[in-house]
Here is the input.
Amino acid sequence: AVVSTQSTGITSGLWRTSRHPHYFGEILLWYGLFLAAIPYFTSPFNYLSILCPTLTALQIIYLSGVPMLEKAGLKKWGEDPKYVEYLNTTSCIIPCLGGSNKHKTA
Here is the structure.
């Protein structure tokens, strides 16, 4: 049975502006730690540590977090036109950027 997106709570609060606000927060946390560490860098090689938050962000966005949740959401609510509209009008990660318009109703 298809569950209405109204009952899922994904159209209110932070989920109204981003489909994955928790991942956005995690990515900001790791970049914030990098920025906080910059004053303590003693070598130009320390700047290579930017790879850590960057690789974490890429992993979340393209490998583990977002793709798995998007796939599960489509499986559960993909037939619901309200959910498809939500996908098309809501940013995946960064709040308030808008959707992708790549999801179509089945």
